[in-house]
Task: structure prediction
Amino acid sequence: MTSYGGWPVPVSGPLPMAAPAWLFHALLLLTFVLHLLAMNTLAGGAVLAGVTRLRRNAGPHHVTFVRRFGAAAPVLTAATVTFGVAPLLFLQVLYGRLFFPSSIVMAWWWLGVVPLLIVAYSAAYALAMRHSLSEAQRTVLYGLMAAILLFIAFVYVNNMTMMLSPGTVVERYMADGTGRQLNLREAVLAPRYLHVVLSAIAVAALVLAVSGHLRRAKEPEFAEWAVRFGLGWFAAATILSIAAGTWWMLRLPDDVLNRLIGGEAYATAAFVTGALAGLLALGSAVTARVRTRSSLLVWTTTGATLVALVAMVLTRDSVRQAALERIGYAQPALVVTQWGPIAIFAVLLVAAIATVVWMTVKLARGKLTDG
Amino acid sequence: MTHSAEYRLLGAIGMNYPLWDVPATGLIIAFIAVVHVFISHFAVGGGLFLVLTERKARRDEDAELLAFVRRHSRFFVLLTLVGGAITGVGIWFTIGLVHPQATATLIQAFVWGWAIEWTFFVVEIAAAMVYYYGWDRLDARTHLTIGWIYFGAAWLSLAVINGILTFMLTPGAWVTTHAFWDGILNPTYLPGVVARTVGAFGLAGLYALVTAAWMEQGALKQRIARYAGLAWVAPTGAILPLTAAWYLVAAAKAGVPVPEILGAPGGTLREFAAATLTGAATIGVPIAQRAAALAILSWVLVLMATLVIVRWRAVSFGRPAAILLMTCGLAGIGAMEWVREDLRKPYIIGQVMYVNGVWADEAEQIRTRGIIPSALWARKLPSRTDPVEAHQNAGAEIFRLQCSSCHTVNGYLAIEPLVRNTSVTALQGTIRRLESWRHRRMPPFTGSEGDREALATYLAGIGGASREHIRLASAQANVGHRLFDEHCAMCHGPDGDVPFKASNRSAAHLYELIGRLPSINDAMPAFEGTDPERQAIADYIATLDVPQQSSIGGDR
Result:
C-alpha cells in the first residue's frame, strides 16, 4: 500500500508566485499533451521499428515504414525534447519542492537521462543520414534507440511517483543521499510504466496508420497496409494498455480510486471520458482493419484516441492532485503576477507558432531542385 | 527508524532541500555548462556565419563556396541540435540536483523569462532543421531568410539567458524591488551580452577553420581559412578583451570586489599580471586567478595559431591545427566562465543567497537557532556518550550542510590541507572570521557558538589532532596562548605559513605592533579583541624565541 502520511515538505521561498497557479497548471497540462504526442510517436515508433526490423518475413511495406521512421526520428527527437522542457519548467514552478528532493534521491539515474538522450539522438541522425550503414548496424541502432527511450521512460515514472511520496523520499534520503536509488518499492510503478509504454506504442502505431492513409492517393497499397498493420498494433497495444491501466487503478489507494469512479466530479469526468474514448478508439480500430479504406473509421480512431489521451492526462493530473492533498501541499499564498513578461510571452508564442508553421509549409511545398 | 518532531520543524528557507551527498557536485555543472556554452555560442555565431557566407557564395555564383557552406551546415545542425540543445537541457537537470535552493528561487523570479526564451528556442530548432533539409527544396531567398531567422532566434535566446546569468552576479535593484525587469536588465547585462556576442562570432570563425582543416588541400581551403581567420577570428579576438574589461568594470561598479578576487587589490595591471601569470597573490580566489591566466593564454594561442594558419599554412593545415584550435577555444571558454562563477563568491545569487543556500536575510535566525535544527534534511546524529565523538559527529553534519557544497575532505578544494595540524581554538577563530579570511570570498559561518565549536572539533580531527588535544582545547589555561591560538596561530603557529619568532622584541613593542597589523601586512586583519587580551597575547609571544612545541597533542 502506498503511504503518503504527514511528512514535512520544504517551505516555499520568500518570493511570490509570478502568476496564479491555475495559469501554470494549464500551461503544464497543455505542453505535456504536446510532449506526449511527440514522445509517443518517437518511443513507440522506435519499438515498432525495432521489432519490425527483427521480422524474418518483412515485406516491402515493412521496409518502407522502418525507413520513413528512421528519416523522421531526428525531427521527432527534436520535437520531444522541445516540448519536454516546457512541462518540466512548469512542473518545477508548481511542484519543485517535491520534485527536487525526489530527483536528488535518484540523482545519478535522473542525470543519466541526458547522456542517454545524446546517444539516442545521435543514433537517430545516424539512421537518417548515414546511408552506408550495414543492415546489422541499422538494426542495432534501432534497438539502441528503443532501449534508451524505454529506459528514460522508466526513470521518469520513478521520479513522478516518488515525488508524490515525500515519506519515501525522506526515508530513502536518510538511508543514502548519494543519488543511487530508485522508487522500486512503489506499488503503482510497474503497472504505471507498462500502461504508458503500451499507450506510446499504440499512439505510434496509429500515427503510422494515419500517415499511410493520408498518402492513399499516391500510394494506395502502402496506405492499405499501413492501416491494417498500424491499427492492428494499435488494437493489441490498447487492449494490453487497458489491462495495465486497470492493474494501476487497483494499486491506487482507496480514496484516490474512489475519486475516479464517482467520488470527485473532475476526476470521474476525466477518467470516464478517457475510458470510453479509448474503448471507442479500440472498436473503430478493429473495424478499420477489416474495412481498410474507410476514412471515417481511421479518423474516428484518431479523434477518439486524441480525446482519450487528453482525458487520461487530466485523469493523471487528478490522481496527482489527490496525492498532493494528502501531503497537505499548498501553493504559496503570495502571488504577484508579472503581466508584462506574460504578455510578451503570449505575443512571442503566437509569433513563434506562426513562424514555425510558415517555415514548415515552405519546406513541405518546396520542390526538389538541382540546388 | 523513526522520524520524529525534529524533522517536522520547518527549516530555515535556505536549508530547505536535501544535499546530494556526492563530493564536488559543482564540477558536474561546470563540465556540462562549459560544453554547452562552447557549443551554443558557436551556434549563435555560426548561424550568422552560415547566412553571410551563403549570401556571398550565391552573389558571387561560387559553387565551391556554396558546397562548403552546405557541408558546414550539416556539421552545424548535428552539433547544435544534438550537442547544444541536449546539454542545455542537461544544465537544467544538473542545477536542480546540485543547488535546488538557487534553482527554485531563480524559477520563481524568472519563469516567464525562461518561457520567453523557449519561444526563441522553438523557432531556432525548427529553423535549423528547415535550413538543413531545405537546401534542395527552397529557393535561394527563402533559404537565406530561414538562415536569418535561425540566427535571430539563436541570438535572442542567448540574450534572455544572459539576463538570468548576469543577474546572479549583479542583481542590481532587484534586491529591493524583486521586479522582473530590474533583475534581467541588471548592471552587467549589457557588457555580458556584448561579450558573449563577440565571443560567439569568434567561435564561429574558429569552427569554420576547423571545418576547413578537414578539407582537401587547395585554393578553396585557403580562401575559407583566410576568410574565417581574418574576418571572424582576428577582429573578435581583438575586441574580446575590451568587452571582458567592460564586464569586469561594470561588475566592480556594482559592488563585486573584482580586483581583490583576481589578486590585485590595488587595481594595477602589474599586480594583476603578477597574480594571474605567476601566482604571486596571497589574497583573492586562487582558482579564479589561475582561470584568468588560462583564459589569457588560450586567447593568445588561438590568435597565434590563426595567424600562422592564415599567413603560412592556409593551403595545407590539417587535423592537428583543428585540434589545437578547438582545445584552446574550449579551454578559453571554460576559463572565462570559471572566472565569472568565482566573481560571484560567496554568493550563488549576488547579495541575496550564499553559495551554501543560506539566504543572507536568514543568517541571524540560523545563528540563533543553530544549523542542525534549521536544516530540514539534517541527518539524525548517532547518539554517543563520549562528548568528543558527539561533538565531532555534530561537526561533521554541520560541515556537510554548510561547507560541502564546495569543499571535500580530501579531494577537490580539500579541507584537510587547510586544517592540518591546527588547533581547535585556532580553527574556531578562523571560522568566526571566515568571510574576511584572506579575501577568499568565503560566506560567513552561519551557526551558533556551539555549532562553531563542533565544526572546529570536527575539522581539528580531520587535520590530525588527537582526541587528547581536543579534550584539552576547552580547558586551555594559558590565556595568552589560547588567544594566540585563536587569533594568530592559523598562520603564525608552528605549522602555519609564517611561524612566529619574537626575535628579542619586547612585550611592549609587540603590543604596539598588534595594534596596527594591516599596516605590517595587508593580509592580516586588524586585531579585534580588548586591550587586556592584546596585552596577554603580547606577553605570550614575547616568549616565543625558540621553535615552539606544537600545541597539538602527541598521539595521532
Summary: Chain A touches chain B through 77 residues (CB under 8 Å). The CA atoms of residues 135 and 342 of chain A lie 50 Å apart.
